[in-house]
Amino acid sequence: MERIYLDHAATSPVHPEVVHAMIPYMTEVFGNPSSIHFFGRQSRRAVDEAREAIAKTIGAKTNEIIFTSGGTEADNLALIGVAMANRQKGRHIITTSVEHHAVLHTCHYLEKQGFEVTYLPVNEQGKISLTDLQKALRPDTILVSVMFGNNETGVLQPIEEIGMMLKEHPAYFHTDAVQAYGLIPIDVNKLHIDLLSVSAHKINGPKGVGFLYVRENVKLIPHLYGGEQERKRRAGTENVAGIIGLQKAVEIAQQTMREKVQLYRSFKERMLAIFEQEGIHYAVNGDMDDSLPHVLNVAFFGTNVEAMLVNLDLAGIAASSGSACTAGSVDPSHVLVAMFGKDSERIRSSIRFSFGLGNTAQQIEMAAYETVKIVKRLVRK
């Protein structure tokens, strides 16, 4: 049986060129970048070059990139770091009800520390209202955190418009771009973004490494204490091999962005065309025209999400019910609840397919026809 992996939004396979680039930094170039001898300088040079290359991809300055252990740490550092450094200016934060748990749970923590958080609702397409955001902004708002593209539905938020709105307000603007980076061109200056989170393992890089972009003028308090790495903003010996892997993954993602976008969109269209042709009862969750190219979230009416996932797995197809961080949990998707309400059938019957490296048009067709068979079987029951 051929196994088909359609869960790239959870994690992606490491690109062979990334593995190849990392190996020397686990065998020959092993020095601590903080050491002043030859071995340390070798590693330091590699980290500096990676920082410079990555900064260029988003229009940032080299010193505005902080290497982290991934997206969760980047989100935590952005929110807690800014909140604690700016609490004398205000204690109000704005985010959305559909953020990744790395942001939502951090906001819950900050509420316990005396901050007030406004969670913006979304419409049935999964988008916030700019009017709601404008109304929520207050003189004591110090931070607005809105994700670039949703990890469960792929829906894109109006990042450029939010950036323009906040140009006239002292609040800093953070975006979790973990799913969008590498598939959507991002220029932090054109979009007026102050902080941006990225993770390597979503773009065919290694797990356990990512970065946080922090604009030069942003006041941020570190939450790891130790050495003076990352300009005293993130203590701990740098993950040199991981950073090199991230750099290579970034390079490949930038070079292949256009072709990947076209390919993944064609996968979405083909899958939906087969569902249509086979006459099953389904609906796309989110805005097909304004979403990440690689994420497709579909409600199959009359089915149960757990039964669907088990049957797909038995058929060799790896898909998801949404965020990998809640896999195995019986809790409904907070994203779909925010979009459709807690009583909607979509919450109990929605599957996320996400495409990436190694997927072919033939695999997508096989997965689509297999999904149709499963849906018809479950609905008959």
TrEMBL record:
Enzymatic class: transferase
GO molecular function, one term: cysteine desulfurase activity
Keywords recorded for this protein, A-Z: 2Fe-2S, Iron, Iron-sulfur, Metal-binding, Pyridoxal phosphate, Transferase
Descriptive protein name: cysteine desulfurase
InterPro entries: Aminotrans_V_dom, Aminotrans_V_PyrdxlP_BS, Cysteine_dSase, PyrdxlP-dep_Trfase, PyrdxlP-dep_Trfase_major, PyrdxlP-dep_Trfase_small
Record-linked Pfam families: Aminotran_5
UniProt feature coiled coil, ranges: none
EC numbers: 2.8.1.7
Family classification: Belongs to the class-V pyridoxal-phosphate-dependent aminotransferase family. NifS/IscS subfamily.
Obligatory cofactor(s): pyridoxal 5'-phosphate
Keyword flag Iron-sulfur: yes
Keyword check for Metal-binding: yes
Swiss-Prot/TrEMBL catalytic activity: (sulfur carrier)-H + L-cysteine = (sulfur carrier)-SH + L-alanine
Domain Aminotransferase class V residue range list: 4-365
